[in-house]
Structure formats: C-alpha cells, structure tokens
Design a protein that fits this description.
This protein is mostly beta strands and about 150 residues long. It contains no helices and nine strands. It has one domain: Jelly Rolls. Strand 5 and strand 6 form a beta hairpin.
C-alpha cells in the first residue's frame, strides 16, 4: 500500500507558461506526477491585460474556474460566437475544437484550468482569427445565432 495523496502550498514560481505565453501555470500538485493520469488541474495567472493568442484544442477540453480578477472569454465555432464576462465564481467550458481567446481587464485573472484528457502542447493550435487585437480592441464579430450571445449579465 502506498500513500499517493499530496498536500501543497501554491508555489511562488510557475511550472510553465501557457501555450500562448499569456499566463503562468502552476501544476496542482506539482511534477513529477501532476493531477491525475486522465487529466490535470493547474492554477493560472494572466501576466498582463494583453489578450491570449486565439487558439483551439484538438484533443482535450478545458474548464476555467475564475478565482480573482475580471476579464472576458471569447468562444466560437464557424459563424457562431460569444463573448462572456469572467469574474470570481464563474466557470466556463471550452470543448474540443472550439476557438477561444481570453483577456484580463484592469487586474490579472487568477483561475483554475481543468483539462481532460491531460494537456499536451501539441493539442494546442493557434488560430488566425483573433477576437481582440494586442491592445484589447475587438477585431472580429462572428454572427450570433439565437442561442448564443452574452450569456451572463
């Protein structure tokens, strides 16, 4: 019988940067055996109020759970898209193949990211359809279907 459980404080130094370089990532728990074989959970902190690169995941889905700060998330598929506010207590999903981009507003965002199956950088693909430019101004407005739009007040 082995003791496989772990207890930890959030490390001061990140384990890695996000694939776009927009956030610091701290594995929960840290290497060599982070999270679970089927997926992982990381604590993320945005580095600036500059948006992340727009991207999609080819073989993993993610959930973001916001702990601190305010920002926005853009998600799109084809001509359908939505922009939703990110604030403490908000949980958003990013299914496989969905384009997304996030941005912090005023202060850094701190959020948990759950990825299943486990994140591999090769599954992260930068897409050439950003919603925000490097200054945080909207540059793309996908048409919205009746069921998609600003879903949070």
């Amino acid at each position: 019988m082995s003791k496989d459980w772990k207890t930890m404080e959030l490390p001061a130094s990140p384990d890695r940067a996000s694939a776009s370089g927009a956030s610091e990532m701290r594995l929960l728990p840290p290497d060599p055996r982070p999270s679970f074989p089927e997926g992982e959970i990381v604590h993320a902190t945005t580095l600036t109020t500059k948006p992340s690169d727009s991207a999609k995941l080819t073989d993993a889905g993610e959930l973001f759970y916001v702990l601190e700060g305010e920002g926005e998330l853009w998600r799109a598929t084809g001509a359908l898209g939505e922009e939703v506010p990110l604030r403490p207590g908000c949980c958003v999903s990013i299914p496989v193949g969905i384009e997304y981009q996030y941005i912090a507003r005023r202060t850094p965002l701190k959020f948990l990211v759950a990825t299943a199956p486990r994140f591999h950088e090769r599954s992260w693909v930068k897409v050439d359809r950003p919603h925000w430019d490097e200054h945080g101004k909207v540059v793309s407005e996908p048409s919205q279907g009746p069921e998609i739009g600003r879903s949070l007040p």
